[in-house]
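Can't attach files on this board, so I'm pasting raw text. These are the components:
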Amino acid sequence: MTGDSKTPQAETTLHTLAGGSDFPTTRWTLVIAAADSRRTEARSALVSLCESYWYPLYAYVRRRGYPADQAQDLTQEFFIRVVEGRYLDRADPEKGRFRAFILSSLKFFLADEADRSRAQKRGGGKVLSFEVSSGEDRYQREPAHNETPERIFERRWALSLLERVVDRLRSEFVQQGRVDHFNRLKAFLLDQADAPYAALAREMGTSEGALKVAIHRLRKRYRELFRQEIAETVADAGEVESELRYLVAALTRR
Amino acid sequence: MPGCPQCGAELGSADPAGLCPHCLILGALEGSASGEFGTHTGGPATGVTPGEDFGRYRIIESLGEGGMGTVYLAEQREPIRRRAALKVVKLGMDTAAVLARFDNERQALALMDHPNVAQIFDAGTTPTGRPYFVMEYIEGAPITQYCDRKRLITRDRLVLFLAVCRAVHHAHRKGVIHRDIKPSNVLVMERDGAPIPKVIDFGIAKATYKWAVEKTLITQFGQIVGTPEYASPEQADTMTGDVAESSDVYSLGVLLYELLIGAVPFDTATLRKAGLAEMLRIIREDEAPSLSRKLTSLGAAVTDIAARRQTDPISLRRLVDGDLNAITMKALEKARERRYASVSDLAADIQNHLEHRPVLASPRSRVYRASKFLRRHRLPALGTAAAVVILSLSSVTAWSLWHRESATSPKLTAKDAIVLADFDNQTGDPVFDDTLRQALSVELQQSPALSLISDAQVLRVLALMGQPRDARLTPELAQQVCERTASAATLEGSIAALGSRYVLGLRARTCTTGTILDEKQIQAARREDVLNSLSQIVREFRTRVGESLATVERYSTPLSESTTPSLEALKAYTIGLKLTMSAGNAAAIPSFRRAVEIDPNFATAYAHLGLAYNVEGESVLAAESTTKAWRLRERVSDRERFFIDFNYDRHVTGNLEKAYQTLELWQQTYPRGQQPNPDSLLGGITTHGTARYERAIDASRKSIALDPDFALAYGNLAGTYFLTGRFAEAEKTLHAASERKLEVPRMLLIQYIIAVLKGDQEQMERTAARAKGKRRAEHWMAHEQALALARSGRLQAARQLSNHAIGLALQEGDYETAANYQAARATWEAMCGNAGEGQRHAVSALERSHGRDVLYVAALALALSGDASRSEALAADLENRFPEDTFAQFTYGPVLRALAALLRGRPGESVEWLQIARPYELAANGLNFSSYYLGGLHSAYVRGNSLIPARRYEEAAAEFQKILDHPGIVGADPIGVLTHLQRGRVFALLGDKAKAKAAYEVFLALWKDADADVPILKRAKAEYARL
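---
Top answer:
Structure tokens for the assembled complex are below.
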């Protein structure tokens, strides 16, 4: 059972983001704040969210047992509807989180077979920049053990988010021409990572103190980016930390 | 494949930046260990400040300070009152990381269930951010202190230590490594004067000690944490080692060392003053001094140490110089591949020592083995001079030792089966190993009176016992095989060398009691004579043991085929199976529970327990047991796995389509099987819940044909007929069952509801009376009576019976059932227009249980009472908690969403939601098959109501007609009656006055005895008057 009850620790750690100050405008707040989803700003925010997280949904559809070609059609069709704002007017308590919203919408879509059969086939229409068919390659590399559709979705979601964060972090170093630096220090992003600092400092031609400061900054930035990335998918500050814990659980649960 | 530098996990090609996602995401936690330099220097500050909040726990007193924090005695008040030990972690440890790591282990910890393991109950954080752990409170002393205080002799210490090994071994089998075994984590308590060791703190070392996770004993500031005296070389290795089970073997070795001679290999003072680097080197590299050398180094203190073992220094030294030293040193090997491969191997060797068998740890010289053999056998075999004289009289002498004097000595009968144990070859000459058993087998097969259990059958049974294929068939194993195959006796052969001669022995024993039926020995002068001697002894044996075993008490039917190494557990399980078939699942609960208490890894017994709990209405307990079974499914046979997979989908994920597929596949693979068989399950809710009624009828009929006394199958068949509206056939089936004196509570319910729907008052009363005084049946019936009264508007009387049902269910401990009754109560109150009552009971039901059906029905009542938001929140909870559940996803969720949309004035959206419910609309759901809390077809009822404001009256009328057309599915649900009123309203809107009036009249007739003040009745009367 995955009863996700609010634990006291979740309550007490809620306010770590920006000290509880005003929540910034994010892609998801833009989407749900827009009365009309066809407003350009909201629409492009929604498209960009879909582009970041389409694969977990494709994996979900596949694991629900649809064959590859049908799953590709369904996923494509689903995203077209999402971008059209189809599910946004639904009264949904899950709207606080893009992740929960998009999954419940997908379930709704999959369950509503009659509706789908009424809809006429449409071409991709180039609303979305990603190629759903490329998902099958990735899907074939998924571990074959018996994961439920929900489980594969949540794990893939957490991984997609993690990938985005590490990519962003890396590209910041690339921009400063210090990608080598990143490669040497990235292991310190890991939980509990520890190392002989003196030796590493010598190798990198710097002092141990400077190295520690650099690692400290790297970790700090990593955590900032992580929370920013999550914030892009939720509606208010209160959700960030609990979403983070959810993602941690998704990746670390056995 | 490269590995993660942190946890060693294999990296996938898609992992971000070549880092392991698991450790990477933990690194993102605020204030995780890797987060900040310098945040770990906070003072210890472990004292509990006044007003510190530990949730459900209240601090009673401090029990002491440990390395990682303070331990308190606490009291838990809810859900049960008990005392617990509460460990508060030092401030400065990083709360989020500690809890995240603990969460990782939580499932494994929850699986641990062993009398020598202290249970971990809970973990949490105080509002000030300090993590704490709650565990079973053990009133005891550290094992070393206990043994010294009680002046236990070495043998008793070893017996205690064996229990500790079993506890640690149990944990290893669940995938939990302790990492911090030391005397203060092994407490000994006393129960009825007997010492019981308990290993505490499983899972805590991993969550809190950096070194335990990170393979290193030091923090980044060079502080020593943990307990270096007991740390394994791997734990002291900063570079290479990762911590596995063998690390616990090492720490157990240190503990054994200390129990034996009162000192640890490397004493505290030496280690602490050595400096960090030197300390780590000692742990990694220095060989532990042998026990006797260590004793020498202790000087005068040895006198005291020996005295605490009720012995003197010289005797103690002699005692620990042989096997015990070898065992301890093998556990303390620096290279883990030279240590015992597992804790159970260590335990087995101590057992060997205690039973004077050769220990693995010793070099196996012939003299050594022979001395062991003589020690073991000196009493019966070769103890007396007379026997030796007789032995020497001739080259071939036979004699019988026991039971000769007994005239009533049991004899083997024709067809009595015998299990042949492996020959006990004491000669050291491998030529005898299999030859003699083979020869014995050939000789015995010539007997018309005896039959041998075939080797193939033995192999199959061994697999079920969790034994390897090549397991030696020792007398003990043979005896178990004998019992499992319902055979009569075991036959054990032995051969030993006696000077240049050989002694052959044969012994027959009953398997249930182990009584020796007959025992013979014979001598062979030369090696070449052995086979001849064997033939002779077997011939004599055959005539002597004779033809009758009739007086021997044994099982008349074989035990069921299930994977468990414990015969006792298997017996309890078999009894449970029999009870299931004759008296229903609920009656079998105690037996299944006993089976899993004896063997906590007994997967199939867990599955049955889950099934039985579910029938009892305890879905939460059912899910727990079923999940346990599912986690253990790798251990079982194919047949069992089908059953476990089915149960998992049926009771945990709720994915009935998958459950159904498993049943069909199972049925095809094993068309004729013993219980549980797929046919009996195909007659039940999996098939009803996916609206495959004809399949269900077919399967139940087949079950009954196979076993006409199988009560459950009658219940299922009657249930299917009832659901499909074939009431006459249902009653005929119930009658057939009662003729055979078969009854399960559900049969009474079916009979009762049929009477309700027919309006047969007399039959109702007669059936209700039959439930009186029967556990579970009585409150179930009371609930049904309340429902029947409510559907005719007699709310006062209904309330009384409902109170009775709820009260009785609580009294009998059926909490979730009580919650379901109360939720149903909330629903009918709300349907009749009493919104306040509806809300009150819904809230109170939710306080009792969060079972799936409770959630749904309470949410339904809340929506019907006008509280759309709370109902929607519950719907979301339901969908999240049961993402694959057929009822939750296709019926409960959509109905609740649709109701909320309707309440918010969006009938179109409501109808859209109900599209999802269509595929299973005519299927039974969790409320109406086997529980009858309410009925089905809620989706049609809500759809009908949503179509009215959408002005689609014709369609609305069709929906209400659907409800009337399926009385079995609706059952005693009040919607079955309220539908008449709704039809009246729809016809009025359509302008068809005649039809409208007729419908109102049906409703008012059904409500002729209703209480006058029911709001909906007043409205109905007013509307009728206007017509």
